[in-house]
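Re: the pair you flagged

First of the two:
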Amino acid sequence: MTQPQLAHQTDAGRMYSRSLTGLPEVPSITTVIGLQALDLTGWASHMATSTLIADARLSEAVGSPAKLKTLARQCNDAAERFRDEAAARGDRVHNYAEQVALRALGEPHTMAEAREILAQHNEVAFADRFDEWWQNFQVKPLAAEITVWNHTVGYAGTLDLVAEIGGRTCLIDFKTRGTDRSGRVKPLNDNVVMQLAAGYKAEESLVDPAAGTWESWAYGQDAMLLGVAIGETEVVAYQANPQTLPQYWQKFWALRQVWQYQQAVNVAPKPLQPLGPPVVAPHQS
């Protein structure tokens, strides 16, 4: 995941400050959404098992408990490695998308360098498909990687892109996705609606990170919210259903309260204290 200028990694998760010299004040949108419990144990087990089966050393280890134990231990963190590799790939693809937008905005960019980095990792197909989507949808960027703030609820975040598409202002979040067995890009998680709703409900946007200058959020009215899945074979845009936005916003609001109460619990005294048996008064004769 990319690190916006005002974002800080803390014990309470990723948080935002109001300026480059300011202290972290509010949690990020992704930190709040991350409080939703997700059971990934099945996926982690599948990744470990699949990695073990595909390991060329497995046939040599059969019959040797010591070798099998070593091999299993090395494959056990397959899910963590896959997650980290996917995050790094997502950063590279997001960076390319940002550079494309900056070039279209007439701002300094490193689009060629970003494409070259993708090529070095055999990921240039992501850039090719993104370029096709950009052309087909006739994207007209208004702002790229724009940081927003909500004082009322208490959170901040960075939107990938604000653009005009088909005459509509769109708030856009890019997600790099893998390809399924049929060659289609994998669909987005519904949680992207929470992320987009939180961006839509912003109250301010960043103007100057060094000076800590902000302005009123200009795109919180009548904007279309899009989650865009970027794959190697295609790019698919999904519109957040306007009828579901109130429910997903309420869910985000509730998770924000969970974050706040969790911080209070973390600094509170130990909730459980050992208790000994009651003192029995000595028998009086």
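Second of the two:
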Amino acid sequence: MTLDQMQPRPARAIPVPRTVTDTMEPAGPQVCDDMTVEVALSLMVGARTEHLLICDNDGLCTGLVTQAQLTAVRDSSAYTDRIQLRDILDDRGPFASPVTTMAEAEHSMRDRSLAALPVVDEYGSALGILAFAR
């Protein structure tokens, strides 16, 4: 018997689906939902970011806004300098959890035409952002 024949055969590895935790970016700037659109835009320019995570007074993530969304609000005829971020958020979410698979997250983002998706823990605190590469 040769040495090759004595080597145990490797068991077939079952691929483990990648989760959003494997590819998410750090959460980045998080702001309170009472911030005005104009201040949020200034912050985004200063931080050189394309999106902000919005949190409520309890620190729970309520959504995400992009620079393009804020610019569209500012340029609309209904704009006033009193409009706060909470006024422009549609609903709470959508969000991904750390155990959401990449396939599920990509499907959800494509269906909703999202460029970025907040990743939150079971309590609603922001952990990071899943963003499509540009």
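The mean pLDDT is 87.

-B.
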